Amino acid sequence: MAFDVGRVRGAYPALGEGFAHFDGAGGTQTPTGVIEAVADAMRAAMGNRSTAFRPGRRALELVADARAAVADLLGADPSGVVLGPSATALTYTLARTLGAGWRPGDEVVVSRLDHDANVRPWVQAAEAAGATVRWAEFDRATGELPAGQYADLVGERTRLVAVTAGSNAIGTAPDVPAIAKTAHAVGALVCVDGVHSVPHGPTDLAALGADVLVTSAYKWSGPHLAAMVADPARWAALRPAKLLPSADTVPDRFEYGTPSFPLLAGVTAAVDHLASLDPAATGDRRARVRAGLAAAQAHEEAVFDRLLAGLAARPFVTVYGAPARRCPTVSFRVAGRTPAETAAALGEADLCLSSGDYYAYEFFQAMGLRDSGGAVRASVYHYNTVDEVDRLLAELDRLADDEGTMVR
Ligand SMILES: Cc1ncc(COP(=O)(O)O)c(C=O)c1O
Questions:
Q1: 122 CA distance to ligand 1 middle (Å)
Q2: With a threshold of 0.85, does the pTM exceed it?
Q3: Distances in Å between the alpha carbon of 381 and those of 11, 139, 175, 212, 384?
Q4: At 151, which helix (H) or strand (E)?
């Protein structure tokens, strides 16, 4: 069934303001179902978690519901879903916990393609333990992260391989299953950053070969919360630093403080929204989420192809990387303007694109682009349309005309 983008857009009140949002990679807009779920949870009587009174039981239910929803999104066990404020915070918790067990001579492998949230926590934990950091390199021309290099990067001292399932800078979707296979052959743990990939297609924890997968709900129509998932047995083997009286059970012991119960209601509603993207889908929520994201993916790819073709046809635009498997995200520069100037000029036309390094620090450093302002990023989400792409391309032409850099 064809993806009905008009129907889907109708679910997002913010789209009525007329902005063209090409910054889903930085955070998506919020559908009505999520807004109402958060408001309903705030309107209802609520207590801190307690079995003694109903408002306390509501709080317990909101946590359990959010775990179940995230589990359906990722093909995980709800008891393995750790909830937290952000992917960065959760990764730091895990890095400190794992790092406490590392010894000098142990090794961790990170990649230069990754967002810094899946680099620095590991590098710093390795430094604290006296462990060695090894770097996986991306191909400067294509932006691919060759999986073959991991055979040389891992060894019997490798404790962890951290890798992205989708670059937030240029969209590259590395062959994570192949990388995980290499890592598992030496007994290393695989931590996958799914923050950029999860919004753009069906995800399956086991198929990826991820021991731990991290995702942020605000990149898939939810509120600013995140989750880190693994087999509950994995969590049971780890002991994070924690307060003495807080729950010592799994997954709760990895969660710090009192969570935002209303926002957790929004996480559940966001997964329900993804499960509604293909109205013809049937079955349980896991099946409907997969169908919904597959339908969204086909739509996003069509919109993104038009964007890529349009950028490639403009000689005053330089596009970085051309990965074969990718999320619908691209970084580029426009001749004669810094990335910040381009983004600001596009912003004047209500076209929302970010510029800079978007925390893909190592990527832009390796490309030699970081000191001169990084790039401009366009990312496509399921509410974007070909008309919005045409609007963006027309505005780029106008900027180039202004600059006198247009070559026809
Ligand atoms: C690929 C990727 N990983 C990690 C993060 C960090 O996520 P959070 O803001 O939830 O810490 C981001 C945020 O943009 C991201 O794009």
A1: 15
A2: yes
A3: 14, 26, 22, 25, 6
A4: helix 150-153
